[in-house]
Amino acid sequence: MKAKQREKSADVVVVGGGVMGCASAWELAKRGRSVLVLERSVPGAEASSAAAGILGAQVEAHAPGPLAELARASLGVYPAWVRALERATAIDTGYRECGVLKVAFARAELVKLEREVAWQKPRPKTLAAAALAKREPWLNERLAGGVAVDGDARIDPRLLFRALHIAAARAGVVFRSGAYVRRVVTEAGRAAGVALDDGSIVRAKQVLVAAGSWTSLVEGLGIAPGAVIPARGQIVELETPEPLLRSVVFGRGAYLVPRDDGRLLVGATMEFVGYRREVTAAAVRDLLDAAIGLVPALASASLRESWSSFRPYTADELPLIGKTQIPGLFLASGHHRNGILLAPITARIVLALVTGGRAPVPLGPFAPERARG
Amino acid sequence: MKAKQREKSADVVVVGGGVMGCASAWELAKRGRSVLVLERSVPGAEASSAAAGILGAQVEAHAPGPLAELARASLGVYPAWVRALERATAIDTGYRECGVLKVAFARAELVKLEREVAWQKPRPKTLAAAALAKREPWLNERLAGGVAVDGDARIDPRLLFRALHIAAARAGVVFRSGAYVRRVVTEAGRAAGVALDDGSIVRAKQVLVAAGSWTSLVEGLGIAPGAVIPARGQIVELETPEPLLRSVVFGRGAYLVPRDDGRLLVGATMEFVGYRREVTAAAVRDLLDAAIGLVPALASASLRESWSSFRPYTADELPLIGKTQIPGLFLASGHHRNGILLAPITARIVLALVTGGRAPVPLGPFAPERARG
Q: How far apart are CA A183 and CA A178, in angstroms?
């Protein structure tokens, strides 16, 4: 009964129990806010658990700009954030400062790679074939070389999510699964809670919508219907008795993300097919082919699993983080390929927004305003 | 207690609860024998459920000879056998007289196919590209043609096995799972039962060993240690909203076995790797690549499952069916690629052996004698 009452209102209600919602809820609860997280399915059911876990602040940045800055800021706070999580839960999240390699088969391709990353600071090192083979001996010996982004890292998103969920719950966050939010409820022009599909209302002083690829389906946000759309990614998980790689490797047709226990993720497609949660024959064939091309010994690796999930994509490929036109209603969505990386900085931004503090980065480029419907 | 007592002895004890053991047990029980089936795992756990279910009496016969005759005889009794099973259980086993196509991309390959099947009766029809496309419109339009083996069929081995298991149990067969048979027990030179790994003895007047790839591990059979070895096959199961094929299709690098509900099996590797039950990256890549080559629309098919299992392989690729040197001990094993096809004829042979009747085919070529250890 008590739990039921607690679920009827909160200081902050969070729509979406993914990594954004959880990280934000944890931050708010630590500062004394009562927080209720409403999740359509179960916490961590979607992209948060399906992600590969590349913390690619540099490798995923294709040009200087606000997203590269946001990613760099988030990577900067990652070590302390993960330490706090691991202290709170005793879970090893698989966070490893392993570096990322971008590799090329042809000399010309290597030169192109070098040119693409030349603007970055620190500037990625070029590795000739011999240096590459020394660093990762299982890579295809026909590779011409690669560039090494040593600051980038990896994490196991499923373990990260479990740790976040436990830490948030211990800090007092209440989670409700199977709660389908239809719309944001306003009173006197301010956000006052959310209405569920069973007709019930959950009241809150402030509302954060962090519903990933399902964000546009929540009514009353004041954003366009297609502001956030699902971009399907298919991933294959292989396993070898010993880990063959330490670094994350980006190559032609696939990236490879090793785990210390011998598992290795091969990702990922990028498809706009709505919410069709399929793993397709051609995608699996192509991912396996690319993976075996990069690391020939993977030919005899065991196929463990394959899955697909949905990146929350925005037209300008920047996330939607900030205040909306409705006072008391905030968004943290549209993180596309970089949700796992951007979770800690987003949670800090949300904390600043909700408590009226100063955001750790300029928020202009991420303003939900630009997705106005 | 009564069941326990029934398990301590039987007229016939069958070692192995796969399709051979079950089919034989059913046949014997219908003729009034008390039958106990001992299965290491659970009935149908191994190749019997993992098979693709091609009833390829002609398509799998590469030369005239006793195996081709045995296969033809078994295919001949299949319709009545399946009808009896379906009557006994109301299970549709997916038996379909769909025919099998062997297809070729190049004209020269087609000529080779024609030559390979020219000895067969009835002689398979040659289909030019247009006739092939008319029969199976989803096949790659670049195919040069194929040969059609109209008498061959398909079945769903999992459904077949369920039906067999239920029919056998209803006929009085007792099944015991988790019973690991170490050796055959003899008394006065005759088979008298089997010894389990817990030291207990199950007594029987006659013993049938139908342990598939694990046959050589049963002691006291008088066969060589490597008489039957596992030949791994990997299979991938795809799914499309509508079935794309009706016929079974054999092509370069894969065969395709459709189910009426839109599932489609892509098989299979042939590997000698012991009992390593793996699905490997290269095999899945190659099977998917071959499947998409044969039916391009499979590129967007969903990957449902993948598995591997073990065909019981013999050096001369003929099964071991018949009496052993030990009176009262019989073998029905080593059926390699054709266990599902050969189950009904093998069960009839076993019935004849056990009851002293006349075997439906000459048994000389299949005599366990030749695998003597």
A: 15
